Amino acid sequence: MAGPQIIPEKVTSPFQLMAAWFVMLVLLTSVLLTAASRIEKPDWAAGYLVIFTSILVLLVIGCVTLMLTKFRPHLQDGKEYAQWLKDKGRYSSGIIFKENKTKSSLAIKSSSNVIETKSVPITNVDISVVNAYDSGKMIKALKENGFNADIYQPNSAPYNSHSSHEAIWLGYLVNSAVACRVIKAAIKQWPHLKYVHLSSDGGGDPPDEVHDQIFLGGSTNTAKEFGLKKWEPQDFENLSESMNGNELHAIVRSKYS
Q: How far apart are CA 242 and CA 249, in angstroms?
């Protein structure tokens, strides 16, 4: 039967996937209705196919309507979806940290997972600090720990309070020693940080780059929506660069409700 064809490798975006749904719907309903018109016995079979086809059409239309309304942001391409996450304050308004892959800046001991910094700043790291009234002090503290940093959205008005930015969004792929060092350095400067959440535990389908990042100053409201428990100062003190990833993640998840 001739008709529209779907070439899988050309379906490269969520909206194209929805278009593929409609193509499949047209093909399937055509087959079902054609079969119903040719069935003579049993008598109920043709009616059953027509009813099933009607239900299928309504179901697909309902799903498409839902995707275009409630879940429309999730249909964006990767970069646009990442920006939407930033605007929502889940994985944004904080530090974006990417691991340095060069040996000149970091010496990683695989046996103990300990990172030793040299006196030269780690220039191959992208760090962005939330634009708050005291961001300059945070940038200075990070530089003292070997990290170069910039203010996130420097042209926007700085926050006058940290009460709405008390969370840390931790990418689950970030090296555990790096994560501990950044978190402990940030806590010394911003003791108001009280919540930690792993990027892999939020549900949905965030872009891959989220899992390689750390965000300091995430939304307090989102942390409460996740049901996160507050960390005490001693909890942060117990973090160690000798921890492996599983140990660090277990500590983070122990603060989930």
A: 13
Structure confidence at residue 8 as a pLDDT band (50, 70, 90): low
The residues spanned by each domain of the chain are 8-75, 78-253
**Each residue of 94-115: pLDDT tens digit?**
444 444 433 333 333 433 444 4
Burial of 87: CB neighbours in 10 Å, binned 0-12, 13-18, 19+ = exposed
Q: Are strands 114-117 and 106-109 parallel, antiparallel or unpaired?
A: antiparallel
- Does the structure show a pLDDT above 50 at 123? no
Of 21, 18, 19, nearest in space to 71 by CA: 18
Under 8 Å between Cβ of 46 and 39: yes
Does the CA dihedral 167-241-97-249 come out positive or negative?
Answer: negative
Residues in the chain: 257
**What are the residues facing 218 on neighbouring strands?**
167
Let me know: does 96 contact 126? Beta carbons within 8 Å: yes
